[in-house]
Amino acid sequence: MRLLKTIVPAFALALAAGTPVPAFGEETPSAVTATSPDGSLVLTVTTDSSKRPTWSLTRKGKLLIGASKLGFTLTDGLNMVRGFRIVGSETASADTTWEQPWGERRFVKDKHNDVLVRFEQNADYAGRRMNVRFRLFDNGVGFRYELPEQPGLKTMKIADEWTEFDVAQGGTAFWVAGLEWNREEQIYQRTPIEAVATAQTPITMRLDDGTHLAVHEAALVDYSAMNFKRAEGRLFRSTLSPSSQGPRVVRDLPFNTPWRTIRIADSAAGLVENDLELNLNEPNKLGDVSWFKPMKYVGIWWGMIRGDWSWAEGANHGATTARTKQYIDFAAKHGFGGVLVEGWDKGWNGDWFGHGQDFSFTEAVHDFDLKAVTAYAAKKNVQLIGHNETGGHIANYEAQLEDAMKLYQSFGMNAVKTGYVADAGGIIAPAGKPGETRMEFHDGQRQVQHHLKVVETAAKYKVAINAHEPVKDTGLRRTYPNWIAREGARGMEYNAWGEFANGPDHEPTLVYTRMLSGPMDYTPGILSLEGAGHVPLASTLAKQLGLYLAIYSPIQMAADFVESLAAHPKELAFIKMVPADWAESHLIAGEVGDYAIFARKDRNSDDWYVGGVNDATARDLVLTLGFLDPGKTYTASVWKDGEGATYRTEARHRIAYETRDVKKGDTFPLWLAPGGGAAIRLHPGK
Question: 295-578 has which fold?
């Protein structure tokens, strides 16, 4: 990542840099205020009558977050909640632009004001110190705790984090439950804010006055994931995912927590076109990662998901050498960069769910020749995408991790899909003594540590990681750009297991919720529109194409059987040409949970692509093509819902094609079917 411009040096101290800490009895500030660069957000940090640290936020003169408390409860001492006073503050500002090696957009602007507020408890609490850093952008705010080195407090054993968010007005929330056995793989709920229980983040809210909020976290490192728990009314409090060891987090001082973030916008587009979490992560630590190229891939996967093939060895085994070569041939013919193969390794036989100790990540089963397959792929300019299903047994995976990544590099495999299929408390981690293990929650501190260990080890061998059943994305792809994608939501596979299992509004909701955290390997491209037993998807054929524009990932799958892909040559033509890496991305039409239409510019050409997805309500849209370059005429190749198309009947297969010339500022009428979508390529003429 390359720093392009610095107007004010980042973190340059301004007003009160290095403010000395006064002794008790000396006059100290009763409150600290700060604003976003354009002045629209005003932060106030103070203490209440019980000397509890609080923060509040106004936007354009209107209260957005009421007085909300800060602090920690501990398992082994007095809590860090009361008895505080402000003893000083420091301010800074930054205005920079940095470059992503891959992403929704090439350049990211980071303009913010920063204030660090220093708190100290009184003598009854041993004078412990706690700093809170706030970073205000025009479109959001992030804050984190910074615990300095100090006498009498070497290690913090955190029972829970006491971070509140008092949402000042009512509205609608879009959320999935936190702390559940099936992780994030749920259908999103749409409820009044007051009806939220404990939510996973990101959680998105549309307030009564039209303001849009999305609460999440950034830079989740060596800490437990934050869940968003309603205390009463619209007052929410953080609650950390649990640990088998009692304290939810154990950290030696000094350390910083993850950032707690709120994206803020007037519209749905303002939430989506927002790089808050990325900007709150550290710059690239890996250096040159040009060895990873964004790509599209096919794979031996949908057949197992549907039950046609098996992961286990036997007559129906999916991952055979012969079938893999067939998929490599298809990939080479149609320009796909990779072939994913699941079930290639030992450990799948029998009931593998919850028996991850049996997996080998270096030994192939008898009917899969890893060396021969990777050599065959290399001749075809295709790579094998590795698959490491752990069954949640991270102790077994970590013991083999170095050898596995070294092996994959030797075979020219620079991407691996990992998996953690297990119950919420089913992560089996090393206990510290040889051979001993313990059970951990799927996004507790130990599992957060594990995922970073995988990514860092993979980077040593130039391997990129696409994690399924992951800890949620918090923008760490900026720091570790080999962390290319995650699942972390209810994906396409659910459509194989029941009629309309995901529902037509699932993907238009993902755009404004899960996708705010980062890329998702949703596995689109089921052109047959059929799951197991011919159950239909809640999708038209055009929507399957629109997913490539609505659900971003730098590693996009064409997930159907290759025979089904080949049977739809016009649709396959779009999938082959649509990029997986972008120079710009804009949401040009959409509302939370209803529909989403993007305009994205190819990073490697002057082509633009427009399209997206719809819910169950038919819509007539008029798109304005104001994003195009002036003075150019573009040929628009259109894949859209055919007349009468609907996800509800066999008419879901109806698709229409159109070609027309357009230029900047033209309007483009577009009809979206129930459960429909669209995809358009805009290619400039000479």
Answer: TIM Barrel (3.20.20)
